[in-house]
Every structure is written in structure tokens, then in C-alpha cells.
Amino acid sequence: MTTAKRPGPRQADESRPPAPGLTALRPARVLVVDDEGPIAEVLTAMLSFAGFSVRAAASCAQARTVAREFAPELAVLDVMLPDGSGLDLCLELRARDQDLAVLLLSARDGVEDKVAGLALGADDYVTKPFSTAEVVARLNVLLRRGLAATEAVLRLRVGDLELDEQTHHVARAGRAITLSPTEFRLLRFLMRNAELVLSRRQLLREVWGYEWGGETAVVEKFISQLRGKIDADGAVPLLHTVRGFGYAMREPVA
After folding, report:
1. Which residue among 9, 60, 102, 185 has the highest number of C-beta atoms inside a 10 angstrom radius?
2. Measured between alpha carbons, how far is 244 from 79 in angstroms, rounded to an integer?
3. How far apart are CA 226 and CA 164, in angstroms?
4. For the residues of 3-28, what is the DSSP string, one character each?
5. What is the DSSP letter of 243?
6. What are the Cα distances from residue 2, in Å, to 47, 50, 96, 124?
């Protein structure tokens, strides 16, 4: 892959705001990652003008730090960065936050390049030179898509267990279940990933936010408490221990 610098935003866009009507649907947090100062500055200025909340980084290392502090909802990533690939960074950021929407920027406009980027988890792909108005429009499309997905999963169901993400109401077979905030977050993550075996380390990272470790006994304690509430009164078990691996929320076998 060539390391030559690529063209950035079209010159005509550098001194004026996006076209009328191209404003952010809401002030979503956007992480811009590009090592070329002029491009990063233009994107930051224009996206801020459109109504987004923007932070910029010039490398993969900086992007990791900013992402941890800023918790972006959208990311605009250059494919070619000085300390790694934007494609690898996309995979890493999406592993940390599966709801993060990613827009890739690249001078490589071949179909195979676009397919590779999208196959690795990016949501959209824009080639350079690009219009900042187009970037605003594409980010708004990703916001609409995310809103639709959020609305679709407001109510989770596994067997006769239901969880409403908006009201925090949990019930099994119509029986209301009272959960602590941590128990709710744990159950929500298990239900969002129903049928998958989740390790204790995964649960520590995703539910408690322990990135590099933590006491796994806390997971066992809360799993036990949760099981006592959702699988009580002789109900068919939904929360299963997979010995040597972790835990899984599973539909009862007919």
C-alpha cells in the first residue's frame, strides 16, 4: 500500500459551511482520525459547524486515548495512518463499542478496497477528494440507522423473559423482577448476546468497564444473584454456566 499523501476535501468546501439543511440530526459525538493537519482541521471545523461534537486524533495511539475519554458515537477514520491501518483501528474501536458507526476515508477508490473496508466492519466509505457536505450527509444517515436499530431493540426477549431498555422493566412470564443497576446491565448484555458464550473477562470489560483485569469473583457473585431472580420458582433455566468458558443466555429447548 502506498504511503503517498492523498487529496483531502475539495477546495471549494474549505471556506464555507455545508449546504443548507445539512446539519447534524443531533449533537452526536464524532471522532475524526487523520494525520494530515489540514484535512483534520477542515473536518473538525465543518462538522462542529454542522452541530456535531467533535474530537480529532492524528494516529491510532491518539485515537485509542481519545475514544476512551470521549466515547464517540461516530468515527471518521483515514485508512492510512502513521502508526497503523485505519482498517485495524476500525476493528479495534468496534470491538470496544459495537454501537459505534464508522465512516472510512481513503484515496483508494477501487471496488475491492471498498468491499474490504465494509467487510471489516465499517458502515460507509468515502473516497478522497471528498465534500464535507457529503460527510455530514453520510453521518446523518448513520445516525438515522442507529436510531432505528436502537428503537428495534428497546425490548429484548429470551424465551418468556422480557427486558425493556427504555423503562428498565424486567419480567418473566408476566412476573415483574426487581434488579439492581448492575444486575440490569449484566442481564441486558447477556440478552443482547443471547446464545453466545461470554467469558468472565468479557463481562468484566463490558459490564463493569475493567479493561485490563479485575476480580472475576464479582462476575460469579452477580451471575448467582441474577440466576436466583430470573430462574426462580421452578422456571426452565435461561442463564447457563458453560464450564471452563463462561456463561450464556439461551432459549429453552422445546
Report:
1. 102
2. 38
3. 16
4. ------B-GGGTTSPPPTT---SS--
5. T
6. 28, 33, 29, 22
